[in-house]
Amino acid sequence: MRHASITTTQPPANGWSVVRRVAPYLWPADQPWVKRRVVFAVIALVLAKLISVGTPFFYKAAVDALAGEGQSAAWMLGAGAVGLTVAYGMARLMTVGFQQLRDVIFARVAQRALRALALETFQHIHAMSMRYHISRKTGGLSRIIERGVKGVEFLLRFLLFSIGPLVLELLLIGVVLAVVFDIWYLVAVVAVIAAYVGFTFKVTEWRVRLRKEMNDQDTDANQKAIDSLLNFETVKYFGAEGREAARYDAAMAGYERAALQTSYSLAFLNFGQSLLITGGLVVVMVMAAFGVQSGAMTVGDFVMVNAYMIQITMPLNFLGTVYREIRQSLVDMSEMFGLLEKKPDVEDKVDAKVLKVKKASVRFDAIDFGYESDRPILKGVTLDVPEGRTVAVVGPSGSGKSTIGRLLFRFYDVQAGAVLINGQDVRDVTQDSLHAAVGVVPQDTVLFNDTIGYNIAYGRAGATQAEIEAAARAAQIHDFIVSLPDGYATQVGERGLKLSGGEKQRVGIARALLKNPPILLLDEATSALDTQTEHEIQGALAHAAEGRTVITIAHRLSTVANADKIAVLDQGVVVEQGTHAELLAKQGRYAALWQRQASEEEGAAA
Fold this sequence. Notes:
By secondary structure, the chain is α/β, with parallel strands linked by helices. The protein folds into two domains: 16-341, ABC transporter type 1, transmembrane domain (ABC transporter transmembrane region fold); 388-605, 3-Layer(aba) Sandwich (Rossmann fold). The protein has helices at 15-26, 32-67, 74-127, 130-133, 138-181, 183-230, 232-237, 241-293, 299-341, 401-408, 431-437, 452-457, 465-474, 478-483, 501-515, 531-545, 580-586, 589-605, and strands spanning 362-369, 378-385, 390-394, 416-421, 424-425, 438-441, 519-523, 549-554, 565-570, 573-578. α2 (32-67) packs antiparallel against α3 and α2 runs antiparallel to α9.
């Protein structure tokens, strides 16, 4: 089986493709209020930049008024130095005010986009087929989603409020320098910006590759930690705490190396940017100083040039940071969007119908199936399960018993033949309606880390407390639950580890009964239990089977002796079918299995 990779071993995705993927969250066609907020935020942004570019004029006029020189506009000189200083302060305050207003307006847009994307990712992962989920790595997957959502938040904010505004501000300042002073000021500024941008982009692309490696190491370390904690008991059984710690430390050592390289490269980038900006600032200020000495410029002009250079320096520094973060966010998001681009192996047809079933019959019609193309599991299996009857599927390990259950639930699609419910091919009906019609009690019931009541109620959304308790009584676990100090509010722990195997199975049976499906699949529901607990649960299973079509997959033959029909699988082929008595009379494969298990049980008892 080909395993799904969650690491970033491929080159970084094209940045524009990721930007195009994010853009609809900023401009959704079906939500005009989002568009209005984006427009108002942009208006606030433009006003902030226009005021910001005009602010140094007040500074220049105030200095000239104090120095008693210059030919500032009459209305400015009439205001006086104090008034001009106050106007300068008000202009700066208005700049900040419009910037904050922009953030307030846009905040709801960003949070809505994050929520929508997180929900889309969550739903998509649940929609993926079993083939994907049995090969995924939970720890690494969660880290990729976490980084991706954070990257989208950053990109949504800075794509709209950094790159565009930065270009607008630089253009306005360039026009002012060329018109008010001299074209050579503009030439000097453009040269500095070009050198800065070129250096920043080139070094940042190098840093992106380092960041990818760091992400890979981070994902690997997180996966090892999660995997070790999920298998806590196994680690303890084999005294492997030291091995697990060494394994985790080795992964963290790789992350440490990558993180150090990233930090060193950041220091190099920051120093190079400072060198270029400082050099450009010195060159332009020297030009302005010569202008003042020659009498072509006033002291106010010198101060104004300095103010504009500082305004250029700040967004240029910001450009370096924003570009680095955007490129790194694109790396993070490309992994998450890669997950969203994965297609499920099993999907509903465009014209899929709702499964029509009240009382169900099931037929496996000459099905062929293999998890891998070169290793067939089921070969031409035909099996009928009449309405309201119990049919057991038995056979040695690896014969394909559990695979039949997975095909019925359509975790996988058959390669040949068909699985039919009341004559309807499960590939032609919606998965939701199919899943609603089939209840499953698996070999190992996995519970949510919540209360017993919550886990039973999971069988049907909106179930009342009375219905939950009725299902628990039918599964013969109600008396046990009410004997607990917290009753149905008792916490079961992660994966239900606070309950015994038999108690978990009864909760699983109660959950399936509450669902009340017409078809019940018992997938080796008692094979992991001891003989006494198994006998106790058999009564609950028999009650659960009343009035339903039941497929029982079993390894222990004693649990299915009362089935209406037993099918014996061997190496993916149905070799025998019949009742328990009929199969024993044949003295074939079933009889041999029965005698072997009986001998093993007698030996164990002795």
